[in-house]
Amino acid sequence: MDVINTIGRRKTSVARLYMQAGGGNIEVNKRALEDYFPSDILQTIVKQPLVLVNVDGAWDIKINVDGGGPAGQAEAVRLAISRALVEVDPEHRPPLKKEGFLTRDPRMVERKKYGRRKARRRFQFSKR
Questions:
Q1: Which helix (H) or strand (E) holds 82?
Q2: Per the domain annotation, does 123 fall within a domain?
Q3: If DSSP codes are grouped into helix, strand and coil, which group holds residue 10?
Q4: What Å distances lie between residue 125 and 41, 57, 93, 121, CA to CA?
Q5: Residue 45: domain span
Q6: Under a CB-based contact definition with an 8 Å cutoff, are residues 42 and 10 in contact?
Q7: How many domains does the chain have?
Q8: Each residue's pLDDT tens digit, 21-58
Q9: Residue 61, pLDDT score
Q10: Is residue 60 assigned to a domain?
Q11: Closest by alpha carbon to 52, among 27, 17, 89?
Q12: 32: which DSSP letter?
């Protein structure tokens, strides 16, 4: 089978994924998943779609992820994996959709405006 390419995004993180049939190796930025995401919670987030559709260990996955922090990157990777699994087998779509793994979370940091201390916070007003 060919290599499947997908993209996942979350906040300012972008994950490009290359998936092919194999032994279950997950490589993030040329490092093992456990090295790149040392936290068990982030590793669980990345593997959630694979565990949900019972294909954990059936695919070799290479991921290039850039931007944002660890949590945003992990969720971007989760979206990319979910999209790849749907591309492989459309039967995977309903359970992944039900868990919300196919939904792109659009929330991003609002930019700072001029004349303000932050995006919406004004400077302290002094009456006198």
A1: helix 70-88
A2: no
A3: strand
A4: 43, 59, 53, 11
A5: 4-99
A6: no
A7: 1
A8: 888 899 999 999 999 999 999 999 999 999 999 988 88
A9: 93
A10: yes
A11: 89
A12: E
Joined tokens for residue 95: 């359970």
The pTM of the full predicted model, rounded to 2 decimals, is: 0.89
How far, in Å, CA of 106 to CA of 79, rounded?
Answer: 12
| CATH number assigned to the domain comprising residue 21 | 3.30.230.10
| Residue type at position 64 | N
| Euclidean distance between CA atoms 46 and 119, whole angstroms | 31
Q: Which of 52, 61, 62, 66 is nearest to 11 (CA)?
A: 66
Edge to edge, what strands does the sheet with 4-10 contain? 4-10, 13-21, 59-66, 26-28, 31-32
Which is nearest to 103 in space by CA: 82, 74, 73, 72? 82
92-101 residue pLDDT tens: 999 999 999 9
Please, are residues 25 and 61 in contact by the beta-carbon 8 Å criterion?
Answer: yes
Give the number of other Cβ atoms within 10 Å of residue 58's Cβ: 13
